[in-house]
From TrEMBL:
Pfam families reported for this sequence: Amidohydro_1 (PF01979)
Span of domain Amidohydrolase-related: 170-420
PANTHER family per UniProt: ALPHA-D-RIBOSE 1-METHYLPHOSPHONATE 5-TRIPHOSPHATE DIPHOSPHATASE (PTHR43135)
Protein name (database record): Amidohydrolase family protein
């Protein structure tokens, strides 16, 4: 893929300077990235636990991963004893709608995938994701505007929202989005508005045309869905993944077979389902009140977490969790995303909630962590992200304890590195 190649090749000169590793810094500023080791930590590499060992970082990249022998001498060492080192998390469903872009990295989310935004606000993303310079901002891939029809889901989001009209060429719509800088084609497949009234939705022919054009262009396509019927149309069209789990009915074996055989992933966004039923949202309440989390919440995060949808639909999270269990049991890949940026769901912190909800739905902690690291990197083809591997970008998260045994250890962040430089946690 063209963007992957340029990203991997770029930025080799960055981070070459010598630097001190400030192991105890909570200053809010990133230290300059130099050559150093993180030693004594368990290493979860994005797919499995390798064991206790060390990682050497130089120039913003991982240059050595070892679970045998001592850390090299002659360089600063960050003591990871008792902690677990993992790749920086990837939130594969979020939106920027106001809060500071530093909120994700401060909670270990070093890469974000925005599934709808105004492309005019994302002009620095390609430069940022090629760079190996220290940055408090995440790497960003984005869908830009979604594909929808006049009067359809999201068509009233802004005055300049493009829509696909009857007779328009879906391939031209995709070409326009790619020209605006979209990395992903997002389809809005929703035929009921937030007020419960029917709304127009893309036809099967339009869906097929959009997905085929994205596939020809070599970019992923993902569909917003809440109903099985529209999810089926999307899967049959060949989408790369579903941006939510369908919740209207219990998934039947025929649908599960269809999704598994298609190779598509599903991003459940259980924390959104939880927020939609705000009256019973214990996971979010437990995470955000935890003294290991609460001090780091920004006012923007608090505002989002405290924004109610105003629904009392308490069955939605239960239905979603049951369907996640069915999908996971059928072997369908899960990719973690939160929908942060919408009411009730905040950047960074909501990843912790999502991981706990996924484990509650039946994923093992290791499966949930894989779904938040290597799985999104693979499906969205994010170069150098999602794995602790030689040559990969040193976007890293160190947490106290062992989250592969107890996922709530993710609340207890010890350190975060972005391009090999410490990320300050102060809001
Ligand atoms: Zn969304």
């Amino acid at each position: 893929m063209r963007r992957a190649a340029t990203d991997t090749a770029g930025g080799s000169a960055a981070g070459a300077g010598t630097a001190v590793v400030e192991a105890s810094g909570e200053s809010g500023a990133s230290d300059e990235a130099g050559t150093y080791a993180i030693a004594g930590a368990r290493i979860f590499d994005g797919t499995s636990m390798l064991g206790t060992g060390h990682v050497v970082i130089a120039g913003g990249r991982i240059v050595e991963v070892s679970t045998s022998g001592h850390a090299p001498s002659g360089m600063p060492v960050h003591d990871g004893g008792g902690a677990t080192l993992m790749p920086g998390l990837i939130d594969a469903h979020m939106h920027y709608l106001g809060p500071p872009r530093t909120d994700g990295p401060r909670f270990g989310v070093t890469t974000e995938i925005s599934l709808v935004d105004d492309p005019a606000t994302q002009q620095d993303k390609e430069r940022l994701r090629r760079s190996f310079a220290p940055s408090p901002l995440p790497s960003l891939w984005s869908a830009g505007w979604r594909a929808t029809v006049p009067g359809g889901w999201g068509s009233d989001g802004a005055p300049n929202v493009p829509v696909l009209r009857d007779g328009d060429d879906p391939a031209a719509f995709v070409a326009d989005r790619l020209a605006e800088g979209s990395d992903i084609i997002k389809l809005a497949l929703e035929d009921i508005g937030l007020d419960g009234e029917p709304i127009p939705v893309l036809s099967a022919a339009q869906i097929n045309g959009l997905v085929a054009a994205a596939t020809r262009a070599g970019v992923p396509s993902v569909a917003h869905v809440s109903k099985v019927s529209l999810a089926r149309t999307a899967i049959e069209a060949g989408v790369t993944g579903l941006a939510h789990v369908p919740v209207d009915v219990e998934l039947d074996p025929d649908f599960l077979d269809l999704v598994r055989n298609s190779g598509a992933f599903v991003t459940p966004t259980l924390t959104l389902m939880s927020a939609l039923s705000a009256a019973d949202d214990p996971a979010r309440a437990a995470v955000t009140a935890d003294p290991r989390v609460a001090p780091y919440l920004s006012s923007g995060q608090r505002d989002l977490l405290g924004s109610p949808w105003g629904f009392e639909d308490r069955g939605r999270l239960k239905s979603a969790a049951r369907n996640v269990a069915l999908l996971h049991g059928a072997g369908v890949p899960i990719v973690v995303g939160t929908d942060s940026g919408v009411p009730g769901v905040a950047h960074g912190v909501s990843m912790i909630v999502e991981l706990e909800l996924l484990v509650g739905a039946g994923l093992s902690p290791s499966a949930a962590l894989t779904a938040a690291t290597s799985a999104p990197a693979d499906f969205y083809r994010l170069p150098g992200r999602g794995r602790i591997e030689r040559g990969h970008r040193a976007d890293l998260l160190l947490v106290h304890g062992d989250p592969t045994r107890d996922i709530t250890a993710m609340r207890d962040v010890a350190a975060i590195w972005r391009n090999g430089a410490r990320v300050g946690r102060a809001a």
